[in-house]
Amino acid sequence: MTDTVTRDTEAVAPPPPKRSYAKLAADESREDYSLRYAPHSFRRWSPSMVAGTALGGIAYLADFAIGASIVFTYGFTSGLASILTAAVIIFLTGIPIARACATYGLDMDLVTRGAGFGYFGSTLTSLIYASFTFIFFALEGSIMAQALHQAVGLPVEIGYLVTTLIVIPIVFKGMGALAKVQAWTQPVWIVGMVLPFVVLAFEAPDAWGAFASFGGTEGAGAGFSWIGFGLGTGVALSLIAQIGEQADYLRFMPARTERNKRRWNLAVLAAGPGWVVIGAAKQLGGAFLAFVALEAVGKTHALEPIAPQVEALKPWLGSVALPAAAVFVIVSQIKINVTNAYSGSLSWSNFFSRITHKHPGRVWYIFLNLAIALTLMEMNMFAALGKLLGFYSNVGIAWIAAVAADLVINKRIGLSPPYIEFKRAYLHAVNPAGFGAMAIASTVSILAFFGVFGQYAEAFSTFIAAGLALVLCPLIAWATKGRYYLARPNPVNGPDVVVEDVTATHTCAVCETAYELPDIADCPVQSGPICSLCCSLDSECGDVCRKEPAASGPVLMPLPTVRTD
Question: How far apart, in whole angstroms, are the C-alpha atoms of residue 305 and residue 301?
């Protein structure tokens, strides 16, 4: 009997080793749940605080440069139509995404996984989003370097480095530090934003009338042009991926309850798609300031936000106009670039965790994102602003439109699950509904952008991208009967769940840390619950969970179903 027991014991395989994360990756006060669902226990900010922080991040002045570039190139009438049309598209596609991120506590990457792209399919969108953050970091950094050069004579090459290094200590500390910076700098930003227009209202009251008849600097003329409208809209739509940066804040929104639902809905609307209302106003305002300063500083400097600011302030501030404008520009650029660097670290973390099955911590990817941005600044990408953003918008809008189509159409009519599943354990590697729609739409629109289908298709390439993505996502989901959304049934989804059930914690069998229900899956290899990050980082399990039912049976509780339309 003793020998038998000994032999049986020896035959049993040892349990899988437990995982311990690197110090930085394990510290959620810095990590901010970069690869995870944001638990209710961490969402300690009020709806207004989250919204204020998110809106503080849109202080950027690239809007000024983008608006000025559009109006200078295509004239006031076509430029105005372009900016307003793009704002409407961005606002409408942003509503369901913002509500989904705030409801489920997920960032843009995790929402994309469950909204038609699949576990690895959304890896490509992580790269698209990462490129958005470092492209716009470089644009904003260039604007700040221009201000430093004019104010104190600092060479722009050194200014690029200064603008890059200055954000690191803030971004390193995460959401708490970002919230404080946005709140402390908001009064300075508001005064700096409003004052130039107040001065011009008194000193140049006829300028708006002259601006409305401005025909641009490229001979476009003051009348409406369909070609100019299409091309201008494409440039403005490059900002559509900004909803991802808003989502990085919105995932910390507290639970929506009967008591706070009005404040919650308003905060999500304002901080989500509502950013573009301010953004469109800034584009038109920036174009107006550039127009007023055009004769005094010339076209090149008029497109740099610092010069029009100085010219507008001179009648009242005189010699103090330059330092005052420089302070405003520097504050604005710090406010946005801490967000760009923060969001970039999240997207790179998501990308590399799936490719390498390793996660050293979000903060290390800050340096990768900033290094790429610094390289772009040194290459003077500001000079190619219009073409670069016009090209990027074809890919960005195909991605965002496909996600919005899934949330609004597919989930409403039952082509996709009514909740957002983001965990590897339940997802197919690639879902052709969203991923296929984005791939086809962006490919066709990029070909159109390069003139393959003629002049009008080139001008309206971003409309082609949006239209194809919106149509193809539900069409592919219908053709595939939605079978690529879930690799296996989640035994714990259901509509009748309250917040108290969701916040119940389960201990991960791998890292032995307790996580709330939505961050947990049942794992046959571990014979118990596993957290989403440990599941993502496992490189040896062979995805057994997708091939056979969990050995331990259902160990969890139901997930909430929430309408996001």
Answer: 8
Bridge partners of 559, per DSSP, are 493
* Cα separation values, 65 from 173, 185, 259, Å: 30, 22, 42
Structural tokens at position 163: 């603008």
Six-digit token string for 13: 């395989």
pTM of the complete model: 0.86
**Tally of CB atoms within 10 A around 460:** 23
Q: Cα(395)–Cα(495) distance, rounded to whole angstroms?
A: 35
For the chain, the first-to-last Cα distance in angstroms comes to 65
pLDDT tens-digit series, residues 554-565: 444 444 444 444
What is the pLDDT, as a whole number, of residue 495? 36
What is the rounded distance in angstroms from the CA atom of residue 118 to the CA atom of residue 110? 10
Burial of 7 (0-12, 13-18, 19+ CB in 10 A): exposed
Phi, psi of 229 (to 5 degrees): -60, -45
- State residue 20's pLDDT score: 57
What tokens does 486 get?
A: 């879930």
Q: What is the CA radius of gyration of the chain?
A: 25
Q: For 46, which DSSP code?
A: -
Maximum Cα–Cα distance across the chain: 103
CB neighbours of 398 closer than 8 A, spacing ≥ 6?
A: 437, 438, 441, 442, 445, 465, 466, 468, 469
Residue 77 has pLDDT above 80, yes or no: yes
Q: Give the strand pairing for 514-516 and 520-523.
A: unpaired
Q: How many other β-carbons are positioned within 10 Å of the β-carbon of residue 400?
A: 29
CA distance 302 to 250: 35
pLDDT tens readout for residues 38-52: 888 888 888 998 888
Q: Are strands 514-516 and 528-531 parallel, antiparallel or unpaired?
A: unpaired
CA dihedral 226, 240, 287, 218 (to 10 degrees): -40
> How is residue 457 written in tokens?
């298709």
Smallest CA-to-CA distance from 111 within 334, 272, 291 is with 272
3-state secondary structure of 521: strand
Give per-residue burial for 294-313: e unless 16+ CB within 10 Å, then b: beebeeebbbbbbbbbbbbb
How far apart CA 188 and CA 191 sit, in angstroms, is 5
User: What secondary structure letter does DSSP report for 483?
Assistant: T
What the block records as the tokens of 95 is 């509503």
Q: Are 42 and 519 in contact (CB under 8 A)?
A: no
List b or e across 192-204, with b for residues whose CB sees 16 or more CB atoms inside 10 angstroms: bbebbeebbeeee
What is the spatial distance between Cα 313 and Cα 59, in angstroms, rounded to a whole number? Answer: 19
CA distance linking residue 494 with residue 273, whole number of Å: 29
What gap in Å lies between CA 336 and CA 55, rounded to an integer?
A: 10
Q: What DSSP assignment string belongs to 328-339?
A: HHHHHHHHHHHH
